[in-house]
Design goal:
The structure holds 2 protein chains of 2 kinds. Chain A has one domain. Helix content of chain A is 69%, strand content 0%. Chain A has 2 helices and no strands. Chain A has helices at residues 16-48, 59-82. By secondary structure, chain B is mainly β. Among the domains of chain B are: 1-30; 314-384, no CATH class. In chain B, strands 12, 14, 15, 17, 19, 20, 21, 22, 23, 24, 25 and 26 form a 12-stranded antiparallel beta sheet that branches. In chain B, strands 1, 2, 4, 29, 30 and 33 form a 6-stranded antiparallel beta sheet that branches. Chain B is globular. The two termini of chain B are 52 Å apart. Classes of the chains: A mainly alpha, B mainly beta. The A-B interface holds A 1, 4-7, 26-27, 30-31, 33-34, 37-38, 41, 45, 49-58, 60-61 and B 6-7, 9-11, 13-15, 17-18, 21-22, 25-26, 28-29, 47-53, 55, 85, 87, 439-440.
Amino acid sequence: MLFFVVETGQCPVSTCGLFIMKKINLIFKELFYALTGALVIFVVLELAWPNIVLAYLNLNWVLLSWLFAGIIVLVTGKEEIKK
Amino acid sequence: MKKISGIVKLRIFLWLVLALAVVFFLYLAIVPSGKITYFYDFTNGDYQLAGANKFIGQLTPEEREEPIEDGSQKIIGDPVYFSLRTPRKFNKAKLTLEYKNESERPLVEAGVLMDKIIWRYQLQPIENKIIDQLALIWNVVEKDGVMLLQREKKYDTIENFLANLPPAEEIALYNYDFKKEFLIKNYEAGKVKQEINYSLRGTYQFYTYLKNEDLDFTFTFLDLNQNKDSDAVDVNLYYGDQLITSRHLDDDGVKTDNGEMKEVRSLNFFESNLPEGVYKVELRANDDVITKKITTSQSRVAFLNRIWLENENDKNISLYTDSQLINAQTINPGSLQNIKVGDKELEISSTYRQFSLMFENKVSEIKIAKGDVILSGSGVFSFNQGNLLDPNFKKVDESFSANPIGINYILAGYRIPEEKDGWKTAQAEFDLNNAYREWNKDSFIISIPGLKADDEIDDSIEIKEIKLELEGKTLREKLNEIFKK
C-alpha cells in the first residue's frame, strides 16, 4: 500500500525516519477509519439481517484488525511527537 | 487539474473495498437469481473465512459419527442431523450425497423437518439396497424417476400396470404415493362403544374405518407438566392425505415444568355424514401429554408405526401387529424387560437404546410385562386383533422380504445411485414451502435405519460430499409480488 503514499525523492536523509513514521501514521489512520466504518456497517447489517455478514466473515478478525490499526496509529503518532 | 494525493487515493480505495464488501454481502443474502448452492465443509478450508458461521451446520450428534478425516466423515449411528442456515427462504432443495455404504443396512434416506411437535420429516430415498439387488434379477420398467419391478414380466409400461392392477397383496411400494380406495367387504359398524384403557404418551396416529356410522371419539388427557413448553393438543382427521377437520385443546394453564398435574380433561371428536372408508386420526401433542383413555363407537382402531405405552399401564399388556419389524425402547430403568413377540423374545436390557426384532409372521402378538415402552415398526398396532386395519401396501423397507409374503411387483419413486470409484452419488429433492424453519434454519436428517453406534458391529456410512442446491423466488418475482399487493 505504501506505493500510494511514498513518493521518491521526498525523504531527506536526516529526517527519513520521521518521514516514514508520518506516512505509516497517515496510512494506518485511513485504515483505522475504514475499519471503523466497516465494523459499524457490518454490525448494523447483522442486526438488520442476521448472519448476512457472519456467514462469510468472522467479525472478530475485523475487530482485531481495527484494534491493530488503532494501536499503530497511536504508537506512530507518539513517536512523531517525540521526534 | 488538481492532483489527487496518495492519501486521498488510499481513502477512496479503502471505502470502495468496503462498499464492494457490502454489495457482495447483500447480493449473497438476497440471491437475486433465486438459485444458490451450499456445500458441507469436510475440509475446514472452503470459501468461508476461518470462524465464519457455516451455512450447513455440523453433523450431530457427535456420538453417532467419527471425526472428519481425509475430506470425509463416517456415520456410525442412526439418525444424524444437520441444519441449513439460509439468509432468505427458498422453495426447493436438491440434496446431493456422495457416500460409501460400508454397512449391511439396506436403507439410506434423507429428509427435512416438517413438524417439530411430532418430529415428522419429509423423507426421500438415497439408497435402497433391496431394490438395487432385486433390479438385477427382476424385470425393470423405469419412467420419470418411477421404477416398476416385476418378478416376471407382465406389464410393458407403468401406465399399463396402473390401469390393470394385480391383487394388492402382490404389490409393495417404496416412496410412491399410491391412492387406492380401501374398502372392507362385509364390514359392519360397531354397535357398542369400546374403551382403550391404556395410557399413551405423546403423539400418535391411528386408522379407523367408517361405514354408515358417525365418527365418535372421546379422548381423556392428563398433562404431566414436565417440560416448559405449552402442552396444547391438536387432533386432526384425514381422509387419504387430505385434512378434513381438526379439534384443539389448549394447555391446562400450567406452562412451567413444575410437574403439577391438574385434573384430567376430555376432548370429544364427533363428525357425521362421512363416506365409507379408512380415516386417519392424528394426535399432535408433546411428550407431556398422556392420553389416559380413548372411548369410541368405531370397531377398528389401529395405531400407525409407533406408540408409547405409559408407565401407569397395568402389567401384561397385549398388542397385535402386522409389522415384520419391531423396535422397542424405554427411558425408564424400571421397564427393562423381555418382550414376547409371537414365539420370540426381545430383550430390552438398557435404557435409551432401541432393540429390534425381525420376523415373518403376518400378524404377531406382543406381550409386554411393564409399561413405559416405546414400540415402533413398519405396520400397525392394536390392542385387539379384530381392530387391526392396515390400508397401506407393503413397504420396501429394512424389514422387507419379497418371497415370504408373496410380493411380485414393486413400484418405487426411486433412482439407483450412480457409482464411481467406489463412491455412490444420490440425489433427493425436497419441497421447503411447508418445512419447519426456526432462526433461519431448516433441519435435515440422514437416516440409516438399523445402524447403531453402540452395537459391537463395525459398520458405517462414509460421506464425502453434502451439496444443497436451493431454488426460490428471483428478485424480480419478489418485487412483482410486493408491488402487486
